[in-house]
Known about the structure:
This protein is mainly alpha-helical. 64% of the residues lie in helices and 5% in strands.
Amino acid sequence: xxxxxxxxxxxxxxxxxxxxxxxxxxxxxxxxxxxxxxxxxxxxxxxxxxxxxxxxxxxxxxxxxxxxxxxxxxxxxxxxxxxxxxxxxxxxxxxxxxxxxxxxxxxxxxxxxxxxxxxxxxxxxxxxxxxx
Length: 132
Ligand SMILES: [Zn+2]
């Protein structure tokens, strides 16, 4: 199955199973809630499980390096290796987040496939000038 086909099928099945949260108000609040749950699951990996820790400080990189080379000085600020349990919990929360993102797209009449394609083209065009 092609990736675009998976995205289309996912959007279709979300539309089929979504009964309670068809209102844009419900979609927006469930989407926002799912974002918070993803963040919380990552934080719980640090503060409850402890399999990973966060070690962050100011990012330093030589000013004379090109924008393309700056990437090698950036890190995730995560230390350690995430355990299987935390990976499963985070994956589940990310899945729910995708569900509510898709529900919001359905409510607003956006095709996920088009959003992916448009964003891919934008990133591909801007390349290293995309400062995010
Ligand atoms: Zn863990």
